[in-house]
Design brief:
- With 666 residues, the protein is an all-alpha fold.
- Helices cover 65% and strands 1% of the residues.
- The chain has 28 helices and 2 strands.
- The radius of gyration is 28 Å and the shape is globular.
Amino acid sequence: MLGMPRVTTVSSAGLKNGLLVLASLCLALVTLIPPASTRMWAWPWSLALAGTLTLPSIVPILRGFATDRPLVLPSFGWIALTFASAITLLLSALASPYQVSLLWAAPLLVGPMVFLLAFDWLHTEPSQLEMRRRQLHHGLLLAFAVLGATSFGLWLAELIQSTTPALELRNAHPLGHSNYTAGLALLMLPLAGATVWQQRNLWQTLGIVVALLALALLFTSGSRGGIIGLAALAFFALVFAPVAPRKKILLGVVAVIAGGVFIAANPRTRTLFSTGRSDSPLALSDIQRSAMLVASARMGLERPALGWGPGTTPLVYPRFRHGLAGGAETVLQLHSLPANLWAELGVAGLACFAAFLALLARDVRGDRIAVATFASYGAFALTDWQLDIPIFTLTLAVLAALVARPAQITRPFAPRLAAVFSLCTLGLVGLLGKIDPAPDLNLRALTLARDPTKTAEATSLLRLSLTLNPDQEIAHFNLGWLLVVADPAAAERHFLAAVHLVPDKGGVYFGLGLARLNQGRPQPAASAFALECLNDPTFLFSPWWREPAIAAQREATLTALRRHLDRTRAQLPPESQSPARAALSRIAEAAPQLGQIPPGPERTLRRERTGYPVLMRNLDLPPPVDLYDVRELVSRPAAFANLPPKGWLPSPLLLALLNEPVSPKP
């Protein structure tokens, strides 16, 4: 009998430790197996993701109701922020028009739970706080060493097999994108640098290795945002370094010179101080990011209180795509932490973020290494959103636990409240969190549509998908092609819906023209064909013009194209000299050849949407293939070389041309 309490205590602690070890192994799997950020949404890796996100939430429940020792909680400000953040995520997801948001909120919801666990472990014995702080630093350093070595090793392996020059090959390992690599480097560097500065043993050696790996990762990532984070870290280190002011000035000069060399050595980061071509990949990236910021502002204004729901950006972005001057058809995130918070969580999300910054400033002396990491990564986060990836959310949660101060007054009910809240959160996500059924309906419909006898069933599935989410360009576009002959009036409505979601979608204006032509409206059809040529100039030479019914519209289409070119030229701002006006000139030069297809073989293909499973966070789905038959010449005319790419014209201008009245008669 005397031994039973001891056995119970050991069993409870063993269960807690076992859950945390299993969660750590799951986290390692969804972080180190490339490309981890997308692979974690595919079976069986999604099982490891589920373990990463659920197991840490079970431990506060066990600890909250433990009789041997209550859960140690931080000060009122931190515990209030923890609950407020979790409640905001839950309310935003529950209020979202997309039911999948609750499931997609899980990577963010696990952060508050890990924060509580890390703080509890640190402050179990006040006399051991410093020792446990060092242990946590060492544990993070070891994890960073493994992560850095994995990333750099995979990059070297890719470099050996690639023909790309070393300075131009961006390191996307192991998470799958070079921006993630830069984010990891900025999490690694402050702790590594501090270890080198403070210790004189094997840990110092490991710190040197991790620091070198972090710099290598940052350099090979080619991330311009990473340079901003590095500059913020250097500034923070200089301000708080325990050295004389004169030495700080000298160190500052050295840092500026070293930073300049670091930036100049990489062709991509060098563009921070150079003006390249406005049609270069970097310039196009800047246009896309500007479009995302505009979209973020408009998304938040439409639902300012709680936003659209965690993770819903790829579902919401198409609603606002038509009003953007540039950018991708749809995006997974908005490349800015504040922008993503505003769009997905509204004022409530920004308020939690502001409260976190205030607490961080108040407790700045809690753990300088952690604060330096927040300063560095926070500056970088202005250019990217990464909190939907567990390694970032959980690492930042642990760092926050290092900064937070303990509560002055012990509240016995608080640990049980945390346990009940964790239990409710798990229950809500488990019971109400559901996978979005619309993508599967779309895939089934596109597969069935390959069989002409199952067109009706495919049509029904796409219509059902649109009842779940009417803002799906993929469903409208392909439904238009299914109905273009059988019900051209309905097809026209779906093509117009697709246009207003993705105005620069290739093939959509051609489909719209066919739907109008099949209704006996040749002039509006010719105007739509002309817009297809304007949006995707390669359509000037498409073998579709060999079809007699379409070839009969050549002259009317050419007239409409010239009218569109004149209107576009008049609407472009005066300072828009390149590439827009140059593109107009190239199209105008090629316009007289519209529909004059030289003899020769052609090929027919259907475009595959390779990014769709990633956007839907369901990698078990195969990439969908559109129903539009793209017809191309095997040997392209010389004029092809000078034509601008599809989507070169800003979406608002395309829609303005589409909405211009067209005379029904020649």
